[in-house]
Write a structure and sequence with these properties.
Radius of gyration: 24 Å
CATH class of the largest domain: Mainly Alpha
Strand order of the largest sheet: 3-6-7-10
Shape: globular
Order of helices and strands: EEHHHHHHHEEEEEEEEHEEHHHH
CATH topology of the largest domain: Butyryl-CoA Dehydrogenase, subunit A, domain 3
Number of helices: 12
Number of domains: 3
CATH architecture of the largest domain: Up-down Bundle
Number of strands: 12
Helix content: 40-55%
Strand content: 15-25%
Length: 421
């Protein structure tokens, strides 16, 4: 047997290993194909949503803030919601990421980041139907009967959904869940309590998580159930006002009987579909954070040259310049990180670390940027006449919702260190 020394055409600059020239050329071509801008059709959609926000939602900010100031909460009334729904439907903005076979447009996550970025620019609370997180959970877990009964009407905007995961004393740790579902012939009997449920009283159905398989030596098996409003034993206990003008609910399940066919997905395997739902909301939050931070920065850029103190405009003050420079840098990083994560999701990659990174980094960064904008505006920044206070409060809640920043930082560190606790 004769061995011959291989000719090292090119060495990888990072590993020092030899790379075949043809491989190197192809890799170079692949690198040249990297594109950090949205495809034309997705940019057109982003521009369309921007126009929708400008023409339909921004004019409603004053009435939303007036209601919140009066202690009524931040919301659109029925007439406003009907007008906005009609406008968004006419513009073709419903069912953007829903499957085509049920009337959606099947858009990728990258496109939805652009949509979320534009929606984040306003404090008017509005979701383009259907709300993506619960939609995507239904998409991956619903069987044919459930698709007809729940997914299709949801995509058409005929129903409202909620999800019940968190419990008193078991928020960020799903393994602390105590709500149980016990099989009784063909039905399931659910007992327990859920909290922090958005739209808990208004939803036509709630995706409810419960333990179905207890394992004293490992992770309990949890399952998801589709529970209709009005189901006996599904009791809304109280409405909980939140600091961003919205409200959540606490719900008790008292021998709540659910038909067997409403088990969503496989028994004991509800964790993975739930993570799809949570991951979607987290990347949505990152997208909204970009929009809020961008608007706050633009407000600073516009106001700083107009306001003078001690003979100089604020724009001449180094502190203000640093605030604006830091905002632009963080927004650039937020945007790149979020689109990168979205692209990896569309590619089917494991993005658990990236989702935790962007959820923590984007909400925390946007909160700091909005806080600097409030400081820049001085006394006016402390009023309820500017949208900054609602943006700040929304970001403050987002730093907790769907996993606090500290837990997401722990997830990233745990993945890097290879530890389980």
């Amino acid at each position: 047997m004769v061995t011959a020394a291989l000719t090292c055409d090119v060495r990888n600059r990072y590993t020092g290993r030899c790379v075949d020239r043809r491989t190197h050329v192809q890799q170079s071509k692949d690198k040249l194909q990297m594109n950090f801008e949205l495809p034309h059709e997705h940019q057109m959609l982003k521009d369309l949503v921007a126009r929708f926000v400008r023409d339909q939602l921004m004019p409603l900010e004053a009435s939303v803030m007036a209601r919140e100031t009066a202690g009524q909460g931040a919301y659109l009334d029925q007439a406003e919601t009907a007008r906005v729904d009609a406008a968004s439907r006419e513009m073709g903005l419903w069912g953007l990421d829903a499957p085509e076979e049920v009337g959606g447009m099947n858009l990728p996550m990258v496109a939805m980041v652009g949509v979320g970025e534009e929606l984040g620019r306003t404090v008017v609370p509005y979701y383009l139907p259907p709300d993506s997180p619960n939609l995507r959970m239904l998409m991956v877990a619903a069987d044919e009967r459930q698709r007809v009964a729940y997914l299709e009407p949801y995509v058409r905007g005929e129903t409202i959904s909620a999800i019940g995961i968190s419990e008193p004393g078991a928020g960020a740790d799903p393994q602390g869940m105590t709500t149980t579902a016990v099989q009784d012939d063909d039905d399931w009997i659910i007992n327990g309590r859920k909290i922090w449920i958005t739209k808990g009283a208004e939803a036509d159905f709630t995706i409810l998580m419960a333990v179905t398989d207890k394992n004293p030596n490992g992770r309990n098996g949890m399952s998801a159930f589709l529970v209709d409003r009005g189901t006996p034993g599904f009791n809304v206990l109280r409405k909980i006002p939140m600091i961003d003008g919205t409200a959540t609910y606490e719900i008790a399940l008292d021998d709540c009987r659910v038909p067997g066919w409403k088990l969503l997905g496989k028994r004991g395997q509800g964790f993975a579909p739930m993570q799809v739902r949570l991951g979607t909301r987290r990347i949505e939050m990152a997208s909204w954070s970009i929009g809020m931070a961008q608007r706050a920065m633009e407000m600073m850029v516009e106001y700083a040259p107009q306001r003078s103190t001690f003979g100089k405009p604020l724009s001449a003050r180094q502190t203000v310049q640093n605030w604006i420079s830091d905002a632009a840098t963080k927004i650039h990083a937020m945007r790149l990180m979020t689109y990168d994560c979205a692209w990896k999701i569309d590619e089917g990659r494991d993005t658990r670390s990236e989702i935790s990174m962007i959820k923590a980094f984007c909400t925390e960064s946007a909160y700091d940027i909005v806080d600097h904008a409030m400081q820049l505006f001085g006394g006016m920044g402390m009023t309820r006449e500017l949208p900054l206070y609602l943006m700040s409060n929304k970001l403050r809640t987002m730093r907790i919702y769907d996993g606090p920043s500290e837990v997401h930082n722990w997830v990233v560190a745990r993945n890097l260190l290879g530890t389980s606790d």
